Amino acid sequence: MSIGIASHTVLDSIQDGNGIVTEHLGGPPCYCGLTSKRFGFDVSLATKVGRDFPAEKIEFLNNSGLKINNDQIVDAETTRFFIMSQNGTLGRQLFLRSKCQALSLQDIRDIQVDCWLVSPVVDEIPSDVLQAIVNDGGNKNFVMLDPQGYMRIPEKGGSIKLHSKLDLHLSGINAIKVDTDELMALTETRGVRGMQILQKKGIEFVISTEWLVVHLLHRQTHFWIKTKQVDTLDSTGGGDILTAAFCCAYIKEKDPLWALCFAAGSLQASLETRMMGLLKIPSRSKIEENASYYYSTVEFDHI
User: Rounded to 5 degrees, what are φ and ψ at 45?
Assistant: First the structure.
């Protein structure tokens, strides 16, 4: 099995609750890519970095099966974020320090995969590139979208403001993962009603995350899993890990309920590591252990 991941590769400076700043590789190519490797997928990246991207980071990614090609290294700065972690699992402030070149049609043209995961970090995937990915769809004709980067508006000084309304062409998207802000921006409402609006746009699998709960709307059934609260220094990449786990589990098993359990289980396992950056990506065995537990606790309602 193979998966294509479209997004910028990122260098994150993460400040923990004690004020200590550490540098980390980040972005969906890393978090989604390494999680997909846990599921046994070959990973192809549609990404860009600048010439300031450290050679040892490229070597690490290449050795991890996430290849950065020479033509993906461009004459621009690598996308960099400064992240201030706050108290609570999901609390953080995000600042954009630099932004690499946007992806182009050329960046995806030669990638042949079974499925695609599209997850911009700061609006680097133009509409024509997203549409080309949708039109291709991969061998399994499956495209999953995390619209996080379409929401972000960099302001003076690098602080990030969020769009209150988001108009995306979603036709042909098979699955989407949204948080409460993204759901509101896309549908002007929240909860199951908002998920139904996305479903009516043709999206078969609508995943919505809120504090400690992961929801899935599939056909006429609303599933949800209540996760456990974990005090951790860094939650960066948790949504990427969840998204990749759902995508890979569904492509392999074709069972949306199991895929939801793997998604919630992977997120839980990542937070329970209490590690920073990519070190929080959990083992396959821990993901499976959590997924099995959540399978027995999942709640559902026919709507």
Answer: -105, 130
